[in-house]
Amino acid sequence: MSDCPDLHLMVDGVLTGEELASAHAHLDVCPQCKGQYEAILSLKRCLGQLPEPADCQKPWKACIDRLNEIDKAKRIDGFIGKYAWGICGAFLALIVLAGVHNRALGPSNVSAGQVAQMASSLMPVSSSRVSNPNSIQQFMNESVGNAPLAYNTSQPRAVSGARGVFYGHPIVQLRFVDDKGSFVLLVIGGTDGLEGFDPISVGNRYQGSQMASVNCIGWADRGFALFVMGDRSLADLCKIAESVRIRE
Ligand SMILES: [Zn+2]
Question: 191-243 pLDDT, tens per residue?
């Protein structure tokens, strides 16, 4: 939670009045803070007893155990928080992939089981790998090869990525954020040509479609199939494509 109070200031009596009241109110709704608050309190109590020859071993150990538990809970929470968007993006990408498979890569239908298989193959990567132009270039080269994309834009900014293999084709999915929200760029290596998309007239380069009620445009370039999808108009998606593709 972003509005968690500074528990040490609470325990040390620095917070007063309204601040203290709202901090206490927060403890009622945030079990993590409440647990941590209690642990800090007992730690303080424990430290207060130190000058006396009292046996602090047991409460001390209880403090340490509690703090370790909190750390563990935080790590798990942090992982889910960090990858939640990537996981959502990955699912959107998978629905589109199922459609792309039918339309661009082969005539066979993709079953629910195959989609589940794709889901397990698409692994999220650390956001630090895609958040700057140098590391994103390296990540793309390692994952799908030299895709015809320019990464020198600071806007839009990639915030998460995932990669996997789709019927023998290496794939990368990147989620970007700009002032209109987020969109997903999907890159499939080792393929060429898209079929079954409705042609849309932006220089005859892009083909558009709606998949999973989200607009998607695709284009083929130098052995790659590339897609941009998001909750915005096809024209807006084409603008994005223009800003990320490398021109001949
Ligand atoms: Zn909290």
Answer: 756 654 555 555 567 766 665 566 778 887 888 878 888 888 888 888 888 88
CA of 16 to the centre of ligand 1 (A): 18
Sign for the pseudo-dihedral over CA of 245, 248, 207, 238:
positive
Ligand 1 mean position, distance from CA 27 (Å):
7
* CA of residue 180 to ligand 1 center, whole Å: 30
Domain extents for the chain? 7-79, 84-244
84-244, CATH topology level:
Phosphorylase Kinase; domain 1 (3.30.200)
Distance (angstroms) between ligand 1 centre and the Cα of 2 equals 8
Q: How far is the CA of 171 from the centre of ligand 1 (A)?
A: 38
Q: Model's pTM, two decimal places?
A: 0.55
- Please report the pLDDT score of residue 20 as a whole number: 92
Strands (E), the chain: 123-125, 157-166, 169-178, 181-188, 198-199, 207-211, 214-221, 224-230
CA of 7 to the centre of ligand 1 (A): 9
Q: How far is the CA of 9 from the centre of ligand 1 (A)?
A: 14
Distance between Cα 33 and ligand 1 center (Å): 4
Classified as helix, coil or strand, 163 is strand
- On whether the CB atoms of residues 64 and 43 are closer than 8 A, the answer is no
3-state secondary structure of 148: coil
Strand 224-230 and strand 181-188: the pairing is antiparallel
- Kindly report the average pLDDT of the chain as a whole number: 73
